[in-house]
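Module 6 notes. Inverse folding takes a fixed backbone as the condition and produces residue identities as the prediction. Think of it as a translation problem where the source language is geometry and the target language is the twenty amino acids. Below is one complete input and output pair. Work through it position by position during the lab.
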């Protein structure tokens, strides 16, 4: 998905917010923004936003001399969502007419925990969006097609997105394993820390390894840019019978891929609202070959 002017404006705005929040001295903030603008001036319209975002965050991590500056916030959101896990299970899953459909909604709702798209996110906003998302609808046709593929497949690759969100991904993976026990599930994380995107450490800390084989994609970009991914990841990607992809960054980097991929995320920015014709925080449940 090609870079747009809206994306350029958003990425630069994110850089200014990073500088204001994490870099204390004016001269260091100026140097950081100058390096970001130099990096952005070299991109062309055929690139994608996650590639540019990844390069900006490399500059950011160097500027603050911290390889994982969001680690404490990631741990905080994982803990907060874990505390509410039983409540979510009792309220949204166990009482649902279709538990798998409810788990898809819950996984989508977790996509609000995104410090890239929503850098000023707070807990009250997260829980409000989760409640509202569980009342929304998505495409029944896509859902039926996905369940048909899950019933026939042997391997599922689930592309993770953000910390905190992954606790809610676990509901969906658990329901898939309950209904389709023949499936071997791989859960893919980023290869290195970037923003609040999930790493192997994050996934294991919330117990996802009980339901899936945890792998990483070998990159520090906030998406799945196959040209940058490791050979081991590419093998799993190419051989998986079904791929479920979470988050906007994965969508932007994979929507033009010829493989059938099921995308689940929330519409969180003005550009996507216009492009997809959807309201803010509507559920995007999309199959790239449908």
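Target side of the pair, the amino acids:
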């Amino acid at each position: 998905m090609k870079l747009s002017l809206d994306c350029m404006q958003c990425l630069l705005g994110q850089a200014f917010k990073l500088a204001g929040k994490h870099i204390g001295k004016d001269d260091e903030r100026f140097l950081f923004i100058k390096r970001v603008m130099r990096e952005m001036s070299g991109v062309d319209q055929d690139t994608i936003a996650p590639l540019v975002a990844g390069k900006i965050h490399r500059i950011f991590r160097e500027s603050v001399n911290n390889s994982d500056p969001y680690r404490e916030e990631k741990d905080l959101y994982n803990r907060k969502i874990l505390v509410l896990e039983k409540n979510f299970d009792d309220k949204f899953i166990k009482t649902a007419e279709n538990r798998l459909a409810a788990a898809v909604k819950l996984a989508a709702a977790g996509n609000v925990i995104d410090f890239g798209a929503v850098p000023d996110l707070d807990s009250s906003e997260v829980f409000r969006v989760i409640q509202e998302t569980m009342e929304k609808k998505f495409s029944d046709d896509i859902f039926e097609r996905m369940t048909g593929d899950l019933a026939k497949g042997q391997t599922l690759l689930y592309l993770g997105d953000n910390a905190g969100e992954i606790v809610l991904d676990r509901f969906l993976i658990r329901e898939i394993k309950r209904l389709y026990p023949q499936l071997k599930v791989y859960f893919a994380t980023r290869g290195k820390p970037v923003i609040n995107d999930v790493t192997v450490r994050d996934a294991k800390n919330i117990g996802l390894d009980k339901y899936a084989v945890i792998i990483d994609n070998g990159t520090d970009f906030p998406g799945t840019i196959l040209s940058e991914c490791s050979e081991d990841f590419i093998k799993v990607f190419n051989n998986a019978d079904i791929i479920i992809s979470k988050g906007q960054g994965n969508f932007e980097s994979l929507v033009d891929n010829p493989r059938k991929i099921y995308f689940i995320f929330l519409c969180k920015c003005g550009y996507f609202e216009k492009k997809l014709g959807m309201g803010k925080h509507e559920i995007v449940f999309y199959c790239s070959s449908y």
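Reference fact for the lab report: The first helix runs from residue 5 to 22.
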